[in-house]
């Protein structure tokens, strides 16, 4: 399950709407091993295409180095679909290279609403997962003996 703050969802959707009709793309980082998305980084779609996205290689190298320096990892890798449902294409699946990441798709095909879905993609296998949007991680899925994060 992907648990994600509402402000991060709103930022992904806003980015997708801004870049429409081209696909938007980006990453949301979090502390290594935490599975908590915390910092959204909008990235350039090097293809500038309404049907395809690709991270700019120089920008991706810079972002991944910065994550390493900050002890972060890509928790969410997101992009938009501008005229189809929020489901990974064959190309999306072939490019999925982060085994621990949640792959989030935002469909902007309807100008009045959006569709947001999350997937795990491992070895070419696509598995949809539930998405829980929370206001804060403080009380999301904490057990009686857990100390909540103060994000």
Strand content: 25-35%
For the record, give the distance between the C-alpha atoms at the N and C termini, rounded to a whole number: 19 Å
User: Uncertain runs with pLDDT below 50, 5 residues or more?
Assistant: 142-151
* SSE order, one letter for each helix or strand: EHEEHEHEEEE
Overall strand count: 8
Mean pLDDT: 93
Q: What general form does the structure show?
A: globular
- The rounded Rg comes to 15 Å
Query: Can you summarize the main beta sheet?
Result: 6 strands, mixed
Give an overview in words:
The chain has a six-stranded mixed sheet. The chain has three helices and eight strands. The C terminus is likely disordered. With 151 residues, it is α/β, with parallel strands linked by helices. Helix 3 links the parallel strand 4 and strand 5. The relative contact order is 0.20.
Describe how the helices and strands are arranged.
Layout: E1 2-5, H1 6-19, E2 25-31, E3 39-43, H2 57-69, E4 72-81, H3 90-95, E5 102-107, E6 115-122, E7 125-129, E8 131-134
Parallel strand pairs: 1-8, 4-5
Antiparallel strand pairs: 2-3, 2-4, 5-6, 6-7
């Amino acid at each position: 399950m992907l648990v994600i703050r509402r402000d991060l969802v709103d930022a992904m959707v806003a980015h997708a709407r801004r870049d429409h009709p081209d696909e938007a793309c980006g990453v949301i980082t979090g502390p290594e091993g935490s599975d908590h998305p915390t910092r959204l980084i909008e990235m350039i779609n090097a293809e500038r295409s309404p049907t395809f996205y690709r991270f700019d290689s120089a920008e991706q190298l810079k972002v991944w180095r910065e994550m390493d320096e900050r002890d972060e990892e890509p928790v969410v890798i997101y992009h938009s679909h501008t005229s189809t449902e929020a489901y990974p294409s064959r190309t999306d699946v072939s490019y999925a290279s982060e085994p621990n990441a949640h792959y989030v798709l935002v469909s902007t095909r309807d100008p009045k609403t959006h569709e947001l879905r999350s997937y795990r993609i491992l070895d070419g296998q696509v598995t949809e997962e539930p998405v829980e949007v929370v206001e804060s991680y403080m009380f999301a899925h904490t057990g009686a003996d857990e100390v909540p994060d103060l994000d």
